[in-house]
Design a protein that fits this description.
Blueprint (H helix, E strand, L loop, with lengths): L4 E7 L3 E8 L6 E4 L3 H14 L2 E8 L6 H19 L8 E8 L2 E8 L5 E5 L6 E2 L2 E2 L1 H14 L2 E8 L3 H20 L16
Helix pairs in contact: 1-4, 2-3
Length: 196
């Protein structure tokens, strides 16, 4: 099977991003952004999803991290959508629980071509270091929209905000790995409609 991969360059007045994604990778990352906490989360996502991800991003972080985080979510979603192609033979669905010490997160995915995002998470703190926790929602929503995924994210419980968000990104990687995996039993497109 050909390696499923895509790349994108996106430059606006707010951000300058170059991103490459290979679905069938080995967990290799090269991530350089102005948002250290996001770098950490993308590294976890990639390693647990067994993707290969290269991200170089600069943004107007003198304002705040919002534009950079949002635009990386957009670029990652677009590259995933393009890399998946016609989606023949994929499993399509996945549901994964990941614990991180006292925290437990669940991510459910349908590679549906119908973007929808549900998010159930309440964090004890509004910040992890200098990173605003509301940007987790922003990133995931834009990622789901551009990848055209049905994505449900539930943080069942936790006490440490870093652990809770880390569990989300690990679960996202693992769920996406499972949902995009080629299943030899699946003939063609995994939908009774014949298209995704």
């Amino acid at each position: 099977m050909d390696k499923r991969h895509s790349q994108i360059k996106r430059k606006t007045n707010e951000t300058d991003i170059s991103l490459q994604l290979a679905i069938d990778g080995t967990g290799k990352t090269e991530i350089e952004t102005d948002v250290p906490f996001l770098n950490h989360m993308l590294d976890l996502f990639t390693k647990h999803g067994q993707f290969d991800l290269n991200v170089k991003a600069r943004g107007d972080i003198e304002i705040d991290d919002h534009h950079t985080v949002e635009d990386i979510g957009i670029c990652l979603g677009q590259t995933l959508y393009n890399a998946l192609g016609d989606k023949k033979g994929i499993k399509r669905y996945a549901s994964v629980f990941v614990p991180m010490d006292e925290a437990l997160a669940q991510v459910i995915i349908d590679v549906s071509n119908r973007p929808h995002f549900e998010y159930r998470a309440e964090y004890p703190s509004n910040l992890v270091g200098g990173f605003s926790t509301e940007l987790v929602h922003e990133f995931l929503w834009k990622f789901a929209l551009e990848a055209r995924l049905t994505l449900h994210v539930i943080v069942h419980y936790g006490q440490n905000t870093h652990h809770m968000i880390e569990a989300v990104f690990k679960a996202l990687g693992r769920a996406l790995d499972e949902a995009t995996m080629i299943d030899p039993r699946v003939q063609g497109i995994p939908s009774t409609k014949g298209v995704l």
